[in-house]
Protein 1
Amino acid sequence: MLGRRGLIVGTLFAASLLAQPAAQAQSAADSYPSKPIRIIVPFAAGGSVDAIARVLAERMQAHWGQPVLVESRPGASTQIGTAVLASSPPDGYTVMIAVSNHTTNPILRKELPYDTLKDFQPIGLIARTPIVAYANPKFPPNDLKELKEFSKTHPEPINFGSAGAGSMTHLTAELFKLDSKIDMQHIVYKGGTPALMDVIAGHIPMTFATVGQALQNYRAGQVKPLGISSERRYASVPDIPTFKEQGFDVVTTEWFGMLAPAGTPRPIVDKLNGEIRRIIALPGLGDRLTAIELVSSTPEELGDFIKSEMDKLSPVVRQIGLAGSQ
């Protein structure tokens, strides 16, 4: 009888020990956030990722009553900012806005200071947008078909910028380069904004960027669009012809999602995911993020999406000869 009683007590004690981490995680979530939150942007300030992060930060801060800070950590095709996230405490107080580089860096680079799948906890998708080929207004071609004709009479490579090696803006350019057979040379920048500024200044003739990143510059006549990578004409810029309607088989989409360090307690993950969904559903938010399509997902859906993007983009990166090149 004593043996049986001891077994019951031991079982109950073990169960209580197992329940403690879950209870502690729930307790942390109940009081979350109780201090400032940091949103890492792995690009230079001023681009689409920065704009999304600042809108989220503003709304999160207003709702939760805690400071939400946007921290720019550009460089190495998002590797620098991503490494900062990977080494941060898994407590929900450091998150990052990830884009397509997150899925191409493992293919592009021989070594990374983190594991793309194991070191991060997906929170949720936020938005997506197609890519536009923007040019300096003085650059002779006015669309992609004219660009191809221009290249036939100008044997030197046509320089272009992007948000960085392996970014969706870069891959879109490389896919267009393959399809069009135009000799083009990638000029590497630490983000899409510096590349755009050099196009406006006339230092390079063109760049590939998200719609919103250069929308104001386009409307001001500082750049001209040659084509857009959406399947059909994009609602916010219906006058820009698609790559496909100009005869080039290129359709791409940049995505934006929030990540936290691996090991972030599930109740906090759910709280962050719920906050993203709440913000995305707010009326008028699209006016602040012009030309960006707002979306949402569960953490699991973002995790599955990241894996599928890695599988889809691996052959593309290998086809253009960039696998393991950095």
Note: The first strand starts at residue 37 and ends at 41.
Protein 2
Amino acid sequence: MPVTVRDEEPADIAAIHRVVEAAFQQSMEADLVDRLRADGDAVISLVAEEDGEIVGHVLFSPMSASFPALGLAPVSVLPGRQNQGIGSMLIREGLKQAESRGCRVVFVLGEPAYYRRFGFDPALAAGFGSPYAGPYLMALPLNGEMPAERGRVDYAPAFAALG
């Protein structure tokens, strides 16, 4: 049976926690997802499902910026299912939903070699002040151009707990 991507449902919460914890081999990111959801900051939360089992998850949360922006984090796939395109499916569907909701830019903190394939670019985020500023903070304009070249961007408050 193929992998399908769909919106998170309340019955998925425990399985999502397990997937995120397994993907990162610690509970910090899974706790972050739970906190973002509890704070009302899970704007887009998608699962990848196969044969009734949740095998992946992605979350987009609001970012404070001078334009509508979301942060992509975390993206999680069960260790035995990684490198099979599941994470890419989740990210692409999330980006499509973000654009349809009027989001102008998605930011991600991650490995440039991975996220560039989706169009994320560290140079587009370089002018933005953030606790996460640096070569791993990347931006992707959803309409083809950045609405601003500089400013301040911050992730949802739950991210501060990561330290």
Note: The chain has one domain: 4-158.
